[in-house]
Amino acid sequence: MGNYRYESPALGPKALEMIKKDKEVIFGAHTRSREIPLVIESAKGVRIKDVDGNTFLDFGAGYSVASTGYSHPEIVKILKDQSEILIHNPGSDFYYHTQVTLAKKLIDLAPGDFPKQVYFGCTGAEMVESAFKLTRYYTRRSKAISFYGAFHGRTYCGMSLSGSKKVQRAHFAPLVSEIIHTLYPYCYRCMFKMSYPDCMKGQGEFEGIPMLPCVSFLTDHIFVRLLDPTEVGAIFVEPIQGEGGYIVPPPEFYRLLRAIATKWEIPFVVDEIQSGLGRTGKMFAIEHWNVAPDVILIAKGLASGVPISAVIAPSKMMDPSIDGRGWVAGSHGSTFGGNALATAVAVKTLEMIEGELMENASKTGTYMIEKLQDMKDRHKIIGDVRGKGLMIGIEIVKDRETKERFPDDFTTDGKDIKSVIVGGAYKRGMIMFGCGFNSIRMSPPLTITKSDADEALGIFEDVIGEIEKNL
Ligand SMILES: Cc1ncc(COP(=O)(O)O)c(C=O)c1O
Fold first, then answer.
1. Are residues 312 and 67 in contact, defined by beta-carbon separation less than 8 angstroms?
2. What are φ and ψ of residue 337, in 5° steps?
């Protein structure tokens, strides 16, 4: 145990009662933490009210889901209107216009100049599962490439493609086979102890693009020692790693992956489940790299909290009549996917994101990142500030020079630094989450104002200042 004194947030009487009842009936392996003992009464805009009458500024957005904020009047209206018309009938078996309208919109928005089609589901992991089946089926190749630090969900494919934390995989083996993990460019903590851009010196080029050592690990080692690239049916990657620490790769990374995928005809799948739909200031985060993937996965923010997810993929993979290799009827499906209510809300959500929210994410996000960079000059435990738009990560270090982490059992009762910061913010009326091993993420609704941003930054700096004072 460490020697930092910290007390978890107090529980209100109504919260205490509700948590007790919950414990009796809800499964015990949720990742709920004692640092955010939030028992929600209601939520509106960017604020959540708890059952004891406390209000919180929400910079987590229910894990990046509440893209338009909570109960936005336009979203509530479409929910009410659509539920009068049609709530559900399986889109896999019948036709209705909201599903077509949404698919058309997503196809128009997705990068890449080739015909596309859309498959709908309900959750993120389900889309990872679907894309895995889709690419394996289409290519008839058994292997897939994924990355250290990745998080793709809790199902067997999601878990097997993930490489974030061992607890997510422990005791679940055998996992889905034939998945090989390679290196993600976590430049702040380069596995080769190199620094960008010097790391590219002497590495040569791949298809005319300067080579990164972490990518040459794939081409020069994995593709030489473990498997032939022509056996690979997909490369799965998060454009910005989320759960892994809000890590933003350097400019060459996706150009290289795209070139590798093109050279060996490997479907290039981007998991935009957390990073997509305007959050980073572009509709899809991969657009920051000017690269068009083959397959895009989205979920979280798509319908402002109503469960829906989608795979956007080349038509030839989704339609057997094109080159005879695509999914045939019965290959895949879902009862709830693309449900009428969810698709109607998603269309409205996308309109709002395109309307002004994406621009707000870009503008307010840039403002926040600049302010956090300034804050870094004032606080030595802020090691790195990174992100795009309103997907912002802050890495906390014990020692700025050596980048040494705080120990996992930093406090007298064995809590880590992320818990202390998240709990400290909660005590001051703000919600945000940890990510990676020692980073904090801010992913608020895209509706936040500059004044919300200032309030959040003020609380965050207060928490950091208090920790430094008591070190
Ligand atoms: C990048 C990414 N992929 C997949 C998932 C899984 O999504 P879901 O929890 O909706 O299954 C998540 C969830 O956090 C995610 O961040």
1. no
2. -55, 130
State pLDDT tens for residues 97-120: 999 999 999 999 999 999 999 999
How many A from CA of 439 to the centre of ligand 1? 18
Q: What is the pLDDT of residue 331?
A: 94
Ligand 1 centroid from CA 68, angstroms = 19
Number of Cβ within 10 Å of residue 254's Cβ equals 23
Choose among 254, 231, 222, 247: nearest CA to 111.
Answer: 254
What distance lies between CA 15 and its chain's CA centroid?
29
Does the beta carbon of 242 lie inside 6 Å of ligand 1?
yes
| CATH match of 13-71+357-470 with 3.30.160.20 | no
Q: How many CB atoms lie within 10 A of CB 126?
A: 24
Determine if the pTM surpasses 0.85.
yes
In three state form, how does the secondary structure of 169-222 look? CCCCCCCCCCEEEECCCCHHHCCCCCCCCHHHCCCCEECCEECCHHHHHHHHHH
Ligand 1 centroid–CA 73 distance in Å is: 27
What residue spans define the domains of the chain?
Answer: 13-71+357-470, 89-338
Q: What is the pLDDT of residues 178-206, one digit of tens each?
A: 999 999 999 999 999 999 999 999 999 99
Q: How far is the CA of 159 from the centre of ligand 1 (A)?
A: 10
Closest CA to 59 of 449, 469, 324: 449
**Residue 153 in contact with ligand 1 by CB distance below 6 A:** yes
Q: Cα(467) to centroid of ligand 1, in Å? A: 31
* d(C-alpha 78, C-alpha 72), whole Å: 10
- Hey, which of 126, 273, 295, 306 would you mutate to test ligand 1's pocket, going by the most ligand atoms within 8 Å of its Cβ? 273
For ligand 1, atom 3, name the residue with the nearest CA: 152
User: Does domain 89-338 fall into CATH 3.40.640.10?
Assistant: yes
At 44, give phi and psi (nearest 5°): -150, 130
